[in-house]
Amino acid sequence: MQPLILALLIGLLCGRLLKGSSLIKLIPAVVLVSVALLLLIMGAKIGGNPEVISSLPRLGGKALTFAILSIAGGILLTLPLQRRNNT
Amino acid sequence: MTILLVSATIGGVLLGRFIMPATVLPYLSQYALWLLLILLFGIGIELGSSDSLGQRILSIKPRSLLLPITSALGTLLGAGIAAFLLGVRMPLGLGIGAGFGWYSLSSLLLAELAGPEIAAIAFLANVIRELIAIPLIPWLFRQNFGLAAITPGGATTMDVTLAVVSRVTDEETTLIAFYHGVVLSVLSPFLVTLFGGR
Q1: Per the CB < 8 Å rule, is A51 touching B120?
Q2: Which residues of chain A lie closer than 8 angstroms to B20, CB-CB?
Q3: Where are the domains of chain A?
Q4: Which residues of chain B have a CB within 8 Å of the CB of A51?
Q5: In the predicted model, is pLDDT for residue B107 greater than 70?
Q6: Are the Cβ atoms of B13 and A43 closer than 8 angstroms?
Q7: Is the distance from CB of B75 to CB of B125 less than 8 angstroms?
Q8: Looking at the complex, does the CB of residue B120 fall below 8 Å from at least one CB of chain A?
Q9: What percent of chain B has pLDDT over 70?
Q10: Phi, psi at residue A4, to the nearest 5°?
Q11: Which residue of B has its CA nearest to A18?
Q12: B196 vs chain A: nearest CA distance in angstroms?
């Protein structure tokens, strides 16, 4: 995890230095491509793992329930924080 | 953006399933780390080159720092309800939720602590969480959910879904999202081990 934080900090510093440079315009595309490639790799790891694929029909519904309720809980408990934040 | 990212994921699954030789798989994690570094470096540049970043950081309300707490507690509450509904043992259900979207780590830990079945559910649940978060986060921001729109990403708001957040919101919210992801990433292994070992 530390290398990731370091990468962000070095980026912040470079961003300061490159401010106003035309190189900056390329960055959003670089970010988007790297995310797309990361998801492609994640997908390939899942698709290339027969155990995962074969467990989907049996465990997919349970996993989906956990995912949806986990997300809903996080949003729900954060909403009060947000409302008070606005006032 | 959402369509590109979702099709990249689906494309990856098809690639891995039908085209890519199995021998390539072990190398993928190494590429993934480099991509993560490039990703965070890029988002760092975007943030660093924006105007008055210092002022924006100072304008972050102290209350926003509670975000990882409400997000983590809410996730555990939701996972607890899921465990109850599905008849999964409560501590193990909480362990699945405490992956916070970090599917690789949570499933590895739970494979040791709780066996392959729980590990497989944790893997799938946390992958699905990340996949739902990618289209959900922009939608929630458009619906004015504010900080709550960050939470679906869980621990991944310090990497993959940080890119999604930074596309649809301002610099200070992007920084809060990064902080949210870091805190949940630190909490995740502790909580998964704590719950999964029971």
Answers
A1: yes
A2: 44, 47-48
A3: 24-86
A4: 120
A5: yes
A6: yes
A7: no
A8: yes
A9: 100
A10: -70, -45
A11: B49
A12: 15
- Check the CA dihedral A32-A33-A38-A41 and report its sign: positive
Name the phi and psi angles at A49, rounded to 5: -110, 100
- Please count the residues of chain A: 87
The answer to whether residues B50 and A11 touch, using CB atoms and an 8 Å cutoff, is no
Q: Which residues 6+ apart lie within 8 Å of B166 measured at CB? A: A31, B43, B46, B47, B174, B177
Q: Which domain holds residue B83?
A: 68-198
Counting the structural domains of chain B, the total is 1
Q: Does A55 touch chain B (CB under 8 A)?
A: yes
DSSP secondary structure string for all residues of A24-75:
GGGHHHHHHHHHHHHHHHHHHHHHT-HHHHHHHHHHHHHHHHHHHHHHHHHH
Q: Which residue has the tokens 């988007």?
A: A32
Is A54's Cβ below 8 Å from some Cβ in B? no
- CA B46 to chain A, closest CA, distance in angstroms equals 6
Asked if the Cβ–Cβ distance from B9 to A39 is below 8 Å, we say yes
- Segment B167-181, tens digit of pLDDT: 999 999 999 999 999
Among B81, B119, B94, smallest CA distance to B198 is for B94
Contact B132 A67 (CB under 8 A): yes
Given the structure tokens 């979207």, which residue do they identify?
Answer: B101
ipTM above 0.90, yes or no: yes
Q: What are the pLDDT digits (tens) for B77-101?
A: 999 999 999 999 999 999 999 999 9
What is the mean predicted confidence (pLDDT) over A3-27? 90
**Residues of chain A contacting B66 with CB distance shorter than 8 Å:** 81
Residue B132 lies in a domain: yes
| B87 Rama sector, left if φ>0, alpha if ψ -120 to 50, beta otherwise | left
Per-residue pLDDT at A83: 60
Q: How many CB atoms lie within 10 A of CB B14?
A: 14
